[in-house]
Amino acid sequence: MNNKEFIADLVNRTKYNSKEAASLASATVSVIIGELMEENSILVPGFGTFEVKKKLERVLVNPNTKQRMLIPPKMTVNFKPNTSLRSKVKSEK
User: Fold this and answer.
1) What is the pLDDT of residues 19-36, one digit of tens each?
2) Which one, of 74, 77, 80, lies nearest residue 36 by Cα?
3) Residue 58: which H helix or E strand, with range?
4) Residue 73 near residue 57 (C-beta atoms within 8 A)
5) How far apart are CA 41 and CA 16, in angstroms?
6) What 8-state DSSP symbol labels residue 73?
7) 69, 72, 67, 74: which is closest to 57 by C-alpha?
8) Do residues 82 and 47 touch, judged by C-beta distance below 8 A?
């Protein structure tokens, strides 16, 4: 599902027009990004949890040259689905 299809589905499920639905979706994503930038986790009931995790620095070895490289630490976004969402997806298969 792309953004246009998502907005169309949101319009069908709500009383909003397409411009309002697009604005709502954009605002929701902006709030999520803002909270993640502050390293806060976000719990969306019935959906799951978004959280920022720190990956530690590590040493990587190039298999061809045997050269060792230090990979610096970085922050990543992790999503953990709600148990009810996970069970619904598993039951659909």
Assistant:
1) 999 999 999 999 999 999
2) 77
3) strand 58-61
4) yes
5) 29
6) P
7) 72
8) yes
